[in-house]
């Protein structure tokens, strides 16, 4: 602002001397020229109001390892958000991950540092006074905060190839890259939640299967156990009646799966005996007298006489 005031004062002095000279020589400067010079004065000290070079520092409510993973994903995506070349896409692609960049001073503070660099970037938007080709770089610093949060610092800069001048960011790149980091964190949290829910469903299924196994084992134990007033022949007959069935009609199809549309493995004769291996609400998994395994609908079988 001090420089702008000095420039403005110099212009006022220059105009005053011109007016003084023109009056002394009985001549007047064209009013258009005077008007143009006066209009130029406020433009010389104009400030666009943007805060260039401030960067972005955010505390993120996730553990450090999770923030590191999100930043690593964003650094490796090859895209610099929040800027563009001329009127192209709303981002710059073709960026590379590098271990360090001379566009930034060496970082000696705590945390882990990442860099994403795009060379030969043409007049990237949202950097101060850019109209040349040069190198665009973004630096990310991840630092621990506490057990439940971590800090990320993002800074973007553009250096033109012709004059090697540094052009600072107005914050658009930093904000857009942070938004991308937030999206990655949200995706990771959603994936973690879905995995936990899937594991819970799996454990519930295992528990249900174990209960069903115990129930069937109890039923089998009760079936095998002979009551005191039951003869051996009667007990064997009861067991056979529980585990064997008779095919009702000739031509009953032994299916490869418990579905009507499943392929047929064998055509069974009426009166053929089958042993029940698996029982479902509508189908029996059976073994035929010749050792063939398959499925028969419950309506096609009947109990032993």
Number of DSSP E strands: 15
Major β-sheet profile: 6 strands, antiparallel
The secondary structure category is alpha+beta
Q: How much of the residues is beta strand, in percent?
A: 25-35%
Task: Tell me the Rg in angstroms.
Answer: 42 Å
Shape call: elongated
| Order of helix and strand elements from N to C terminus | HHEHEEEEEEEHHEEEEEEE
Give structural attributes:
305 residues, five-stranded antiparallel β-sheet, 15 strands, 29% strand, elongated, disordered N terminus
In brief:
The chain contains five helices and 15 strands. By secondary structure, the chain is α+β, with helices and mostly antiparallel strands.
In words, what does this structure look like?
The structure is a single chain. Helices cover 37% and strands 29% of the residues. It contains 5 helices and 15 strands. The strands form 4 sheets. Strands 1, 4, 5, 6, 7 and 8 form a 6-stranded antiparallel β-sheet that branches. Helix 1 runs antiparallel to helix 2 (31-44) and helix 3 (64-75) crosses helix 4 (172-224).
